[in-house]
Recover the amino acids of this structure.
């Protein structure tokens, strides 16, 4: 069982009680983080949300992932992938 503390705060911040099911919802959140739309850019959070969306079929998320993946340092990319495995395992 994944513990709440194992998943980054970005997946919980302000989302209590909100239920997303469409991959494009996850894409939109990832885009906000990745591109800094209305908030500071956070490539780690953007990458995780976008990978989640792409895994559920969002082509737009897959395209944006290809664009930003090169901007992440390898340790950050590995951490993002571990986080995604935790999240996907709990979904």
């Amino acid at each position: 069982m994944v513990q709440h503390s194992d998943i980054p705060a970005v997946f919980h911040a302000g989302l209590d009680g909100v239920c997303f099911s469409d991959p494009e919802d996850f894409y939109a959140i990832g885009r906000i983080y990745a591109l800094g739309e209305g908030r500071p850019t956070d490539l780690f959070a953007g990458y995780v949300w976008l990978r989640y969306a792409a895994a559920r079929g969002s082509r737009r998320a897959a395209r944006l992932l290809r664009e930003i993946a090169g901007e992440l340092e390898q340790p950050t990319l590995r951490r993002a992938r571990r986080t995604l495995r935790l999240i996907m395992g709990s979904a």
Q: What stands out?
A: The CA atoms of residues 11 and 50 lie 12 Å apart. The helical segments are 23-35, 43-55, 59-68, 74-90. Residues 43-91 form one domain. The mean pLDDT is 80.
